[in-house]
Design a protein that fits this description.
This protein has 147 residues and is α+β, with helices and mostly antiparallel strands. Helices cover 26% and strands 42% of the residues. The chain contains 4 helices and 5 strands, in the order βαββαββαα. A 5-stranded mixed β-barrel has the order 1-3-2-4-5. Strand 2 and strand 3 (46-65) form a beta hairpin. Helix 3 packs antiparallel against helix 4 (135-142). The longest helix has 13 residues, at 118-130. The radius of gyration is 14 Å and the shape is globular.
């Protein structure tokens, strides 16, 4: 199954634990969406990223091939978020070549506005660098740092 992963799900350590058979396919963008921190994590003690609709913006992520077992593991791994906090969503992403593809992603059911913390952002940035995302994507995530 092809999944569009973003945020902390791109961290190589986390991805290896949750989806050990994953295979990176390509970088992708999701049009008319952006990243917001609309769920609270008791584990991270800060806001967690989710994609939300936002006209004219785009969210970056990676498309990965995941096995059914990987998906089941990922679905069950979120121990500190209430059941139903995240859902599978079918989205159309664009490859860097411009080609479009229908894939699955995770999206939060928003409960508020929260701030991320440096340790969470460092975790996300490690994944962005691992998968060689463009500098502009890394800079966007850096801009989320609390001031």
């Amino acid at each position: 199954m092809k999944f569009f992963l973003y945020g902390d799900l791109l961290n190589p350590s986390q991805l290896q634990r949750r989806a050990p058979e994953h295979r990176f396919l390509y970088h992708a963008t999701l049009s008319d969406h952006t990243v917001k921190f609309c769920r609270w994590s008791s584990q991270w003690r800060c806001g967690l990223a989710s994609i939300v609709p936002s006209q004219g913006e785009q969210a970056w992520g990676g498309v990965f091939e995941l096995t059914d077992e990987d998906v089941n593991n990922m679905d069950q791994f979120e121990q500190d978020v209430p059941q139903g906090a995240y859902r599978h969503l079918q989205v159309t992403v664009s490859k860097e070549t411009g080609e479009k593809e229908l894939v699955t992603t995770y999206a939060a059911n928003p409960i508020g506005k929260f701030k991320p913390k440096d340790h969470y952002l460092d975790w996300v940035l490690k994944g962005l660098r691992q998968w060689k995302f463009p500098d502009s994507v890394i800079q966007q995530w850096e801009s989320y740092r609390p001031r």
